[in-house]
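Before we proceed, please read the two lines closing this message. Tell me what the token row says about the fold.
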Amino acid sequence: MSIGRLSVRARLLLGGVAAVTLSLLLAAWGLAILFDRHAARVAASDLGNRLVLLVSAAETDPGGIVSIEDAPRDPLYERPYSGRYWQVAAPSGLARSRSLWDYTLQMPEDAETDALWLGAIEGPLHATLLAVARRIDVATPEGDVALQFIVAMDQTEIAAVRSGFLADLAPYLLILAVALLATLAGAVGLALRPLSVASRRVAELGAGRRRRMGEDVPSEVLPLADRIDALLAAREAEVKRARQRAGDLAHGLKTPLQALLGEAARLSAAGAGEAARGIETIAHGIRAQVDRELARVRRVGEGGGACDPLAVAEAVAEVLRRTPRGVVLDIDATGPPGLTVAMGRADLAEALGALAENAVRHARSAVSLRCTEEEGGIAVRVRDDGPGVEEGLLARLTERGLRLDENAGGSGLGLAIAAEVAAAAGGSLVLCNMASGFEATLVLPKTA
């Protein structure tokens, strides 16, 4: 997945993790440098103190031969190549620690040792030593003798101390990283809370539990909320105008359609039955198309909402029981109370009414409307005990204008309208033959 497709939260967290990691690495690097410098200063101070002790212990005889009466006491000076060394050089010879064995420390040619000198020199086994050196003139009966004092230590000791420091530092850096990342996660969540509020409001708009975003939102998203509310108001106004135009169209077509049907009746009475049937077919087709468009405009106008499917099913059943066909049928509506679907009551009544009318039209003795809660949402099943449908026609039942029984009445739009209403709400219409009869199921989403 590319970074551009990541969510804002994921990008902020990813950038924060990268920044924290880089910052901690730079901090560890900087602390290592500072520790190196501090350790070098401490080592130089220790070497300087040992140089002072070495100078105070040096003795020269009248011939200028140097000797160390009280050598610095340190076991490392006695162990060959231990990493701790001292050396005193005189024109007549030199004295050195046992740790140097037979090795002679050499100062750089440009080293100025008239004052205390600090620097790196080569030691035994090609080791790099940190050394302090100084030249001191000692008076003897034969004149002044220049003595060069050197005290040195292997720099790997400093590296070992630095490694130990970083090893001790690592757990604390890890704890700091966890604390910083936790703080980052909290800060990102707090910073994105306005977007979460806006997302929740948009979801409530879609579910029909709210008509507007409102002004009680964080100031960061208030301009967006105002713009959405303005768009919703403009949409409602446009839908209202569209519904009015559709109503005007329906009323405008009503009189001509009635006139056509009247003319068809007169033609039929005059013996022109074929022409009358042609006119009736055209008139019914126009009426079906107008009814379908009016139903679609009504659905757009209602939009969203939530309702109790059992209450709608009971209302539809009550209406159907009063129809001429429903009087002779056993029509019942059952289901658990308290269910709520994410669909307006008018939309569900239209879809369920179309399915129930179709069931009443083909039932032999009974029609049932049953509401159940399932894993995928809420199912509203309409079942009749009629003859069912040929399996080859099941997939075509939601086509506009398809009527299986031309003598049963209806426009052939009921199942198509029900399918469209269900799809608009995020649900579906499932049609299937049963052992005895036919079942149409509206699968609808539950409210959040």
